[in-house]
Amino acid sequence: MRNLGNRLEAKLNKPQLVHWMCYKTTSTWFPLWIDLNMFMPIGVDCWIDNIRLVYNRTTRRASNSHGVQVRVISTPWWSIGSCWATPRNETVRGAPYDWRLARMKTQSTSTMLQELVQDMYEQYQEPVYLLGHSMGSSGWKDRYIRGFISLGAPWGGAVKTLRVMASGENDGIPMSSNIKIREEQRMTTTNPWMLPSEEAWSKDHVFISTPTFNYTNRDYERFFKDIDFEDGCLPVLEVWCMYGVGLPTPVTYIYDKGYPNTDPVDFVTPTGTDTVDSFSMSLCKRWGGAAGAAGPRHRVHGGCLTWT
């Protein structure tokens, strides 16, 4: 559930293919995420086999599909939103990562982020702000980090994650069904990270409603079992919290008897960013009385920032 994540490239040397029309080897890197040509009929099967992760239940680690190399492509920042403009790749810099992988496989990303922070500190001779969008030693932190800015962070999780895991979500990509995309989305180990939190939602709120069962945050184990995917189952800083409102954002998905292999037939949709509801993102308001958490909160409505 990336909406839509930074770019990835791949290089192939595969022992076997899922379809004879797929590439077995490539001499150069090619776009893995995202190239809309990959979502053509047949092409989507090749893409899923290339981007998928293989999960090892024993080591509890995920790896690329056999014969596939994947690298992250860094895109220089030009601006944030429509209100703040900054010189390209200077005072604001991006730190892209492989969004398919959960915390268990992100040590190299943490090291690169640390090096980026230290490089900017040495260049500008002052601590930096970290800005985390959506899902992205004390002594080191005190010297290099001035504060943390959260942009649309799903502090209480995102209900859309359950729909993604159950029946897929193609993010509006044409010619590719939600159920087909589900094959890839279930292999992305970051998705279960985003399950709605018990701290944000009451134990009686129904996230998924079906003719046979209504799923709440007490039913995650059963949820993953029922969809036949059981593998699914900081130091103090000044914090600036920003989040979006104004777009219909499902907090309950209603299915008919075809669940989980059909699309939802109805939704309950308050406001949010289309992916994360405002209730989850605004949990940072609760931090007002906590040490280091007294920074302003902002809502984004119509493109620019407003105080809240």
UniProtKB/TrEMBL annotation:
Pfam families: LCAT
Top-level division of the source organism's lineage: Eukaryota
Name used for this protein in its record: Lecithin-cholesterol acyltransferase
Any one GO molecular-function label of the UniProt entry: O-acyltransferase activity
Any GO BP annotation: lipid metabolic process
Family classification: Belongs to the AB hydrolase superfamily. Lipase family.
UniProt lineage: Eukaryota, Metazoa, Chordata, Craniata, Vertebrata
InterPro entries for this protein: AB_hydrolase_fold, LACT/PDAT_acylTrfase
